[in-house]
Write a structure and sequence with these properties.
The chain has 289 residues and is of the alpha+beta class. It is built from 6 helices and 10 strands. The strands form 2 sheets. An 8-stranded mixed β-sheet has the order 3-2-7-8-9-10-1-4, with no helix packed on it. The model has no long low-confidence stretch (mean pLDDT 94). Belongs to the intradiol ring-cleavage dioxygenase family.
């Protein structure tokens, strides 16, 4: 078979994949071809636009470095990361505690004692006292869960982006107690702009979208016999709560912060409940070293 029209090419390409041994790989690639070809036909993609798109993909790889994963960022900005997280972690209500990983998670953050601070001495900001409950889908508390926490500074930068912060600042791992609870201290994070100096910024500017994420804390929960839960909890008073450029905010992930006046000054207090689902404990590949 040889193509004679634009529409005649798709079945020929699909036929070339007929001998793909892995059925899942075959399903994914055939679906990708069908949707890509349909997109080209529907939009009547020009050669100049095709050339630009290839250059854009190349630029994503060239912009990725030790401090930023541009591929993850662009997937976030297109809503794909959040869609995958919600699709693969829905409970029996069809909702999920999961959220996108983001481009700044680092593996092997320091293990800390209950109530210890993520913030290195001298880190400025409003003190934060955080705690949480980890439970299974039946509401039973889960002991021995590893809780990996990381967040940006009050200036809106993660430590790997900021030479003034010590290595692994505002990162740490805790373990839930026999009641499924954990607690930590830190400084209250601020909202921040996603990096806009690469292809992600090109995308946002083309769509006249802002780059500011609402303030949030990142969490990753792991325990053998349960799926790794990757999530974020957002400040309920953030002005960007309903316009997150990465589409990461869901109803379940809006946290309740309160500020308490104490003799030494104001302290932000935070508590949240998280639910783990049964399954295989598989960790993501760190987007940065």
């Amino acid at each position: 078979m040889l193509p004679s029209t634009p529409e005649s090419l798709t079945p020929i390409v699909l036929q070339s994949m007929a001998n793909t041994a892995d059925p899942r790989v075959k399903e994914l690639l055939c679906s990708l071809v069908r949707h890509l070809h349909a997109f080209v036909l529907e939009t009547r993609l020009t050669e100049a636009e095709f050339e630009y798109a290839l250059g854009y993909l190349n630029a994503i790889g060239q912009a990725t470095c030790d401090t930023k994963n541009e591929a993850v960022l662009v997937a976030d900005l297109l809503g794909v990361s959040s869609l995958v997280a919600l699709l693969n972690n829905a409970d029996h209500h069809g909702e999920s505690d999961a959220a996108l990983l983001g481009p700044f998670w680092r593996a092997n953050s320091p293990s800390l004692e209950p109530g210890a601070s993520l913030a290195a001495p001298g880190t400025p900001g409003i003190p934060l006292e955080g705690s949480g409950l980890v439970q299974d889908r039946e509401g039973r508390p889960l002991a021995g869960v590893t809780v990996d926490i990381w967040h940006a500074s009050p200036s809106g930068l993660y430590e790997n982006q900021d030479e003034t912060q010590p290595d692994m600042n505002l990162r740490g791992r805790f373990t839930t107690d026999e009641n499924g609870r954990f607690r930590f201290r830190s400084v209250r994070p601020a909202g921040y702009p996603v990096p806009v100096d690469g292809p992600g910024g090109v995308l946002l500017r083309a769509q006249a979208r802002h780059e500011f994420r609402p303030a949030h804390l990142h969490f990753m929960f792991s325990k053998p016999g349960y799926k790794v839960l990757i999530t974020q909890v957002y400040a309920d008073d953030s002005e960007f709560l309903h316009s997150d450029p990465t589409f990461g905010v869901t109803r379940r992930l809006v946290g309740q912060y309160r500020v308490e006046s104490r003799p030494g000054g104001d302290v932000a207090v935070f508590d949240h409940c998280f639910t783990l689902l049964e399954g295989e404990m598989v960790f993501p590949h760190p987007p940065i070293p």
